[in-house]
UniProtKB/TrEMBL annotation:
Residues 33-126 form the Cytochrome c domain. It comes from the Bacteria. Keywords: Heme, Iron, Metal-binding, Signal. Transmembrane segments: none annotated. The lineage of its organism: Bacteria, Pseudomonadati, Pseudomonadota, Alphaproteobacteria, Sphingomonadales. Residues 1-17 form the signal peptide. It comes from Novosphingobium mangrovi. This is Cytochrome c. It holds the Pfam family Cytochrome_CBB3. The keyword Membrane does not apply.
């Protein structure tokens, strides 16, 4: 009988294989349709904490953006839309497991394909940021 860690590894491996099959080939830009879908999914599930702009309370950043900005102290942007290091595999890990105050999201809430679309949107968004 498989143990819990073995089941977790098998499940994560299957999710990554599914996600990889939904992504464009390495080096090819994501289709505009995928980027647009990712932007909509990001707006629905992520932007309230991780979007750009000020918070409703007048703070300079939204809570997730502020937390990441404090954590990275300028070595990486706090806003996910400005990050160039967030591939689908990394997003899948954090979305499925959560981190600190960030909750985990089930596949019924945010599918693997949704995460792939978010990755495509974030890559396109980061590419448009001038620094």
């Amino acid at each position: 009988m498989p143990t819990i860690p073995h089941l977790l590894l098998a499940t994560t491996g299957l999710a990554l294989a599914t996600l990889a099959s939904a992504l464009p080939a390495q080096g090819s830009p994501p289709a505009q349709q995928e980027v647009a879908r990712g932007k909509a999914v990001f707006a629905r599930h992520c932007a309230a904490c991780h979007g750009r702009g000020p918070g409703d309370d007048g703070s300079a950043h939204l809570p997730g953006t502020a937390a990441l900005a404090a954590r990275y102290q300028g070595s990486l942007p706090g806003a996910l839309e400005e990050r160039k290091d967030l591939d689908a595999e990394t997003l899948l890990y954090f979305v499925r497991h959560g981190s600190g105050p960030m909750p985990m999201f089930r596949k019924t809430e945010v599918s693997d394909a949704d995460i792939g679309s978010i990755a495509a949107y974030l890559a396109a968004s980061a590419a448009s940021v001038r620094k």
